[in-house]
Structures
1.
Amino acid sequence: MTPAKPFRSRDWFADPVRSDMTALYLERFMNYGVTPEELRSGRPIIGIAQSGSDLSPCNRIHIDLARRVRDGIRDAGGIPLEFPTHPIFENCRRPTAALDRNLSYMTLVEILYGYPIDAVVLTTGCDKTTPAGVMAASTVDIPAIVLSGGPMLDGWHEGDLVGSGTVIWRSRRKLAAGEIDEEEFLSRATDSAPSAGHCNTMGTASTMNAVAEALGLSLTGCAAIPAPYRERGQMAYLTGRRIVEMAYEDLTPSKILTRDAFLNAIRTVSAIGGSSNAQPHIMAMARHAGVDLAPTDLTEHGHKLPLLVNMQPAGKYLGERFHRAGGVPAAMWELLNQGLLAGDCLTVTGRTIAENLEGRETRDREMIRPYADPLMADAGFLGLSGNLFDFAIMKTSVISPAFRQRYLERPGMEGVFEARAIVFDGSDDYHHRINDPALQIDEDCMLVIRGSGPIGWPGSAEVVNMQPPDHLVRRGVQALPTLGDGRQSGTSDSPSILNVSPESAVGGGLAWLRTGDIIRVDLNRGRCDALVEPAEIARRQAEVPPPIPPSHTPWEEIFREKTGQLANGGVMDMAVKYRGIARQTPRH
Ligand code: FES
Ligand code: MG
């Protein structure tokens, strides 16, 4: 086979001018079975970007899967070189894993650019590992393929399905209402995590792996295979085989990641009831790919679509059943069949989306609903703006019937409600004061959190899904309207208004909002405004802004200097100009 373009690794291992350097590059790799002959043979060197480690338990399955990937690479004639990526563990990393997406992105760029790697397998799983890898692949633009590790098996607790994260939010309310004790809380949480894998709900991990597949970056059906299943290992092997072919074909991300591919991904997120974190991550990947995507594209192209996949938190089931029902291809098949996907987008299979989806209709209509009979209409993200912010989203697929009735269906005021703001400066303030009787929180209140965006936190925290005070939960009030400049977990069933941009820490409107102000939300017009006179707003803007903590690490300081707002993906704005950098190999 002749490669479409000479492999860049030849610059290291077959340099006609500097044979002394070639010898130096070769000698250390020989320690573990790669021979100089192989490295000089002109076969492609395939990186395996290993995202699993003891610190990244959601991706730990990749430590085993990498062996299958290597087998596939070798069998197809490539040479595998595995290396670690910066760990990201959503639940454990303080002050937030959101600091790590851009860090993992940046370090992966340096590796892919600075080492003799011709193509790469991106191992993904936990939330931000997918966008970090895709962002880096675009910057470097060498052939890249996404291998998701897959979700955990379904969790069961006393005969009920318990899903990652979702069980935590729901059990917290039961704990607050006095219905369960701490021991029961812990047992529900551990039962939701029965095996290796990432979150088994349609949280951010499953959403972002579905997005990678919808973009055309994974082999068909890859995203949803549970981590421990036999098919997962086979998928790893096939992914290894395919990336070698892609190296020969020079099938790079820039040939796959078009605007149409991103619109396909946006529509898929709506149909699967995907995480609200898809909004910044899709924007981030598009910006690094150089694709012209506006924040409003997500709401314009995604909102008026129905929810088809019956998976927690918007629906009932978990990852195993989703996979058995056909997974992402079956959900996409419904959209394609309605003419709602661009079928001609090229994918890593070397074929188009339409070709990949042929014959993928589901046979489980309880899990994946027909387009004409969905779980919910208009299920994508609703975009909002107003005098408090330029951009925020609301995940409409998780609006409960009770919430809808209480706030959105008052006769004569459909889709419109007003609420008294209760403003918290970060989550510590929320936890200290939420049960303070002096705040007199009732059902006509809206809980607001600020200081939780990319610059304020820093990183942007998953804190907007604030629970009502205990006395309301005990009365059966499961959710109050919430608003904030942070994010929320993709596993949360709270219909929050979140990802508010600009955030309070950079002078956004939440900075001047006061407890007691009335906020008017109009979902029909996509508006959210504080009913405060302009003169009063100006007066407050001249006052001292709300406090934010100092940076505690060098990276926090760099992150704050370089990172933009969630509306635009929270990327390092200076980084998006670097694209296709592997076209030129670095000097000796
Ligand atoms: Fe890692 Fe959910 S916490 S996948
Ligand atoms: Mg999360």
2.
Amino acid sequence: MEAKKIRSTFIEFFQSKQHHYVPSSPIVVKNDPTLMFTNAGMNQFKDAFLGNEIAKYPRVANSQKCLRVSGKHNDLEEVGVDTYHHTMFEMLGNWSFGDYFKKEAIEWAWELLTEVYKLPKDRLYVSVFQGDAGDNLAKDQEAFDLWKAIVPEDRIIMGSKKDNFWEMGDTGPCGPCSEIHIDLRTEKERAEVPGKDLVNNDHPQVIEIWNLVFMQFNRLADGSLKELPAKHVDTGMGFERLVRAIQMKSSNYDTDLFGPFIQALEKKSGKSYGKDEQTDIAFRVIVDHIRAISFTIADGQIPSNNKAGYVIRRILRRAVRYGYTFLGFQQPFLYELTPLIAEYFGDIFPEVRAQQEFIARVIQEEETSFLRTLDHGLKMLEGIKAELNEKGEKVIAGKTAFELYDTYGFPLDLTSLIARENGFSVDEKGFAEEMEKQKTRSRAASESETGDWVFVHEDTGVEFIGYDFTETYSHILKYRTI
Ligand code: ATP
Ligand code: MG
Ligand code: MG
Ligand code: MG
């Protein structure tokens, strides 16, 4: 089954169970001080769960664009190194707002996976919250009994609070969850070690696919729990992982979601995927990152030196450097992958098709500007490595990392990554101190400038929608279609 069909089947399945389909909310979150990017399907329903708003529909399903590169969920360091954590991914979800609860959620999840998608039952494991005496929380007996009616007891795993209890924050709705994991190892490997022992153990072939959260309590400020008057269901399934399981691949990157992108890169670079681990990581990082970058730009977040904009710039520069060092790209290349994004995602996420030209231009400019200094920065790093080797030292000074940042545009995480690849580390505290010093210097400078001649208002003819944006991208603003 192709990825597109797998996605539409999910939606249609829940529509047949009276769910209302809602489109994905933007990946970029505005006006929420607690969140920069959408990191789960439930984000857009937060107010319904908190009771601030009455849900429009009691049953909802969707495919949500998510980004996990900052805050509570930061998977960036895993991406490309493993084959199942992405920066940007789609989370398929179904919700009940005070409507159905555990029974339906569990039975439908099982029906969809085993009867519709036909995943082999003997490869699936489910987990149930085991309880937590310290927090006065009981085992989720209800979920356990429901699962026991469907799967043999030895496929049920009891899980700790870390994996099987969900909380929105220190206070608010919370509850136990049940997860579904799949064992994608070979028959031989499965005969040697039981899959049950590998669930939640970072095994690359025994992976979590679906999380069913049962919101049944409200955590009060004094830490106590109160039963919620209306109980809710919030589920999230990684689409790329589901596709991999259905297509029986050993990596998300071997599915038809990433295949066309890998092939395009192979053609462009003249290198093959699947021959050398370091080159493969570069392939995976690039085909992952181009999605994150394109989707966020389509939703209005332009790379910049601030907050969310800097997150995107860091991802982009990381991809550029992987391409430069391991695939031999000395000229901008990322932007040429954007037509594929439009082609493969334009039907479900029309914004990436509508903004295709704009996305490509922003990326191309970013690449061009970073490539201008990348080579110098890498040479400087080579020199530093040689120096440290001579002295028998292993730590790159904060001041040096700051110079790389300030003069050559190397985000700290990029310098740390290159350092790690070579057996070094970076003095991140020292870097932060240098950054602070620079901020103090520029504050002092701008204070002394206020008495001078300044243009307070210059009529540039473009609508002001953020400093970095107009400053850097005003000339391509016309390509933005909405
Ligand atoms: P993991 O333990 O693998 O990091 P998680 O427990 O952090 O996953 P949840 O917060 O439960 O993930 O999210 C629901 C589902 O989203 C997961 O079951 C998984 O299929 C998928 N998922 C989570 N993080 C990622 C990611 N970085 N890339 C792709 N899919 C992901
Ligand atoms: Mg995680
Ligand atoms: Mg997990
Ligand atoms: Mg989980």
